[in-house]
Structure formats: structure tokens, C-alpha cells
Amino acid sequence: MAPKNILVLIPARFDSTRFPGKPLALIAGKPMIQWVYERVSLSSSGLINFNVCVVTDHEKVKEAVEAFAGKVCLVDDETESGTERIALALERHFKQKNYDLVINVQGDEPLIIPKIIEDLCQFHLGSDFDITTVVREDNEIGKDPNTVKAIYCPSSGRCLYFSRSEIPFDRHQSRENFYAHVGIYSFKPEALKSFCEFPVGHYEKIESLEQLRALENGLTIGAIKVNERLQGVDTPEDIAKVEEKLK
After folding, report:
1. Residue 47, CA distances (Å) to 32, 70, 124, 206 in order
2. Which has the closest alpha carbon to 227: 160, 182, 161?
């Protein structure tokens, strides 16, 4: 069996609204983007070659990645999302490589677990889904709009919808089969290209969730279920939480 080639791209935007310069924020003495890159680079799975690269819009991030000998490419176009940025990176820097999958890992997940990436990759390669992602069962998911909920079918692995609202409506108060979305994506290269050619979707605008653009245009999204609760970094206050977990 020929080895599969997987491209893992880590979008790292410098000017975050809530946390300017976030990719370079120090966590236990190392820039956050270095933590993400090094943990992702630990991914290994049989006949699969993982190629990891940071995609950034800023020279300072590029210089920081080069300082720890990481791979990085600069895409400083104005884009609506990290997904569009990685699509531009694929087109400009990796088009001739014929990757089987492109995986998008957010640059603010310093505690990302390599096995999640490995399992997501294996699942996607063995499925017919255009896009795959990750969900976590959370029966106390709450109404926080910053926690995205997924309508996920365990029997098929398919995601039917994503929302900031508390879905599905729990009429019988069973508190079972609620899923939180974990923002890691695996794309078939042609699906990534198609996604970025679609106009912004109706429900995407309402919910401000770009994955709804894919569903509105007929792309299929599957998911693996994980038990781990990751600690991402959205605000400066989250740095202390990550450092505590590292201890």
C-alpha cells in the first residue's frame, strides 16, 4: 500500500481582536505557536506522512517559527477565515504535492493531542466524507454561544448541523447525546477548494459559523468523538490555565 501524504496547516493570525499578538504569547517560556507546532509534529500513524507548516499573515510570526526551525509560509491577503488562508497556502505553496488530506489545526491550541490528529486522519481516509472534524460528548453543554454544538449521529459518524444555540431541544430532559464541536478540520483538497469558491451561506451569516457554508452547499461533514477537553487560548487569561495544565 502506498503511503498517504497529509498536510497539516496551522493558521496563525497575528492581530486577534481579543488578544493581539496571540501566536507569540509566551507559555512557560515558549511562544504559543511553537507549542502547537511541536505537539502536532508528534503525529505518527503507520503508512502516513505528516507534513506540518504554519500559515501566517505576519512577518513576526514567520520569524518566530523560523527561529525554532519550523516550516512556515506567509499568506498576508485579507481573508474572512483561517480556512480561506490555508486554501490560499495550499494553492500557492503545496499544489504540486498531491496531498491526500489537508488538516487545519488552530494556532491557539497549545495542548493539542497528537492522537486526535492521527485518529481524525485515519477516519477520514476510510470514509467518503468531504470534510471531517471532531466532537466531544458534553451533556452539560449549556447555553454559552461561544461553545458550538453539533448534531452528530454516532451510528454514521455524520454531522447534520452546528449551532451556537443549545441543540437538540431536550424535550424529555434526558441529558444524553449532546455534543460540543472541537474546531479541528480535515479536508479533501478538492473539498477545501470548493468550500472557498462558495458564497457565504445564509445560515453561516446568521450563526457566524463557516462550517455551515459547507453543509448548505451539499458537502458532507463527518466527525470522530473524543473524550478529552482541550484548553485553547482565546484571551490572555487563558495562558495561566494552560500553564497550570502543563504542570
Report:
1. 29, 23, 15, 42
2. 182
